[in-house]
UniProtKB/TrEMBL annotation:
UniProt name for this protein: WD40 repeat protein
Pfam families in alphabetical order: PD40 (PF07676)
Family matches, as Gene3D superfamilies: TolB, C-terminal domain (2.120.10.30)
Stretch list, region Disordered: 86-106
Top-level taxonomic group: Bacteria
Originating species: Kribbella kalugense
């Protein structure tokens, strides 16, 4: 069984970012877990936020989370892709955290976790700031503890999320179940996505569909010889043809499929390494979703960032609307705040978006 509830984790993570004791900011090299993965060549920092992307739109915006230590809140920020014209999108009350925004397929809204002292709610806000925050009632009732980690189906008509179901183990705090579900925004048409038979033996999180809706990728967490590990999997929307894309040793998390339907990033899955490893350095990497075996998938992994030998960590990546660039969080080390960066999918033309004294993380790229 896995320690399944995410209640409060993102808020504590934000506090660690601000305090300079980031969980993954130490210098443990990911090279062993990556095996023969190709490292990204160090790229010069560009002064152009969309360098190398001729199809970029000047109307695109970024949404991300910012930690405010004075009242221990995490609110969502929106700005132009170069970091200008920044304003607050959500204004959570003291002690509440809005985290992990995911853009809707039409780019007009984001769905996110709203974490309170009592649990996690799924919330939606418009990127233009109108209409306030809508709390989604997905029908989580006992023994359901929380519905967390929301996303969208490609048509934007349904939500995806992980449903955490009790009871919880009194020693390990493992939930009885934490698996993927989908429902409409009003909570109707609830349907399980995860395949049958793995209740209590694994946790499925972070469901993200391919743009054509034919498959989705997700993170699976499992205890192996007493140690928690994560890997990226793909499957059909009916929970069949489940395939592992990354080795357990890589501890890959936060998988997301490129929205591109053609070109070099079509079918490419971005993820972060060492996502659950304490005091481990993280990198952003990609793996092709169409690889036929775990060995072929491992051979196809490419690093977007290459932080080995530095104090940096890079993680929480999301795709630009056309799949040509990535937005991600980077911590420079030394107790300094985390910032939002963007780069091409191959790691070139990196651009620093934020330079706030506060920590910025969980970027999402909107239209």
């Amino acid at each position: 069984m896995v320690q399944s509830t995410r209640r409060g984790i993102d808020r504590r993570f934000a506090i660690r970012l601000a305090a300079g004791s980031l969980l993954i900011a130490c210098l443990l090299s990911p090279s062993i877990a990556l095996g023969n993965a190709s490292a990204a060549k160090p790229s010069s920092v560009t002064a152009e936020p969309m360098a190398g992307d001729r199809q970029a739109s000047s109307t695109q915006r970024l949404v991300w989370a910012r930690f405010h230590p004075e009242d221990e809140t995490v609110g969502l920020i929106t700005a132009d892709i170069d970091g200008r014209h920044e304003h607050e999108l959500t204004h959570p009350p003291s002690g509440v955290s809005d985290t992990d925004p995911v853009r809707s397929p039409d780019g007009r809204r984001v769905i996110f976790n709203r974490e309170t002292a009592d649990g996690v709610q799924i919330a939606i806000a418009r990127v233009d700031g109108t209409g306030g925050v809508t709390i989604v009632d997905t029908g989580c009732r006992e023994p359901c503890a929380d519905d967390i980690d929301p996303g969208w189906t490609p048509d934007g008509r349904h939500l995806t999320f992980t449903r955490v179901i009790g009871p919880f183990d009194p020693i390990t705090h493992d939930a009885a179940s934490a698996l993927l579900y989908t429902a409409r925004e009003d909570g109707s048409h609830l349907r399980r996505l995860s395949e049958p038979g793995n209740d209590g033996s694994a946790e499925d999180n972070h469901a993200r569909y391919a743009p054509d809706g034919k498959y989705l990728v997700f993170d699976r967490t499992r205890r192996i010889n007493g140690t928690v590990h994560t890997a990226i999997f793909r499957m059909t929307p009916t929970g069949t043809r489940v395939q592992q894309l990354t080795a357990w040793a890589l501890d890959a998390t936060r998988a997301s499929v490129s929205p591109a339907r053609r070109g070099p990033t079509a079918g490419l899955v971005v993820f972060e390494t060492n996502g659950v490893v304490p005091e481990a350095q993280a990198d952003v990497a990609t793996v092709p979703a169409a690889c036929r075996s775990l060995d072929l998938c491992s051979a196809g992994i490419r690093l977007v960032t290459s932080n080995t030998g530095t104090s940096k960590s890079s993680f929480m990546a999301s795709w630009s609307p056309n799949g040509q660039r990535l937005a991600y969080t980077e911590t420079p080390g030394g107790g300094r705040a985390a910032d939002i960066w963007t780069a091409r999918y191959d790691g070139r033309h990196a651009f620093q978006v934020t330079r706030s004294p506060l920590s910025d993380f969980f970027p999402a790229w909107s239209f």
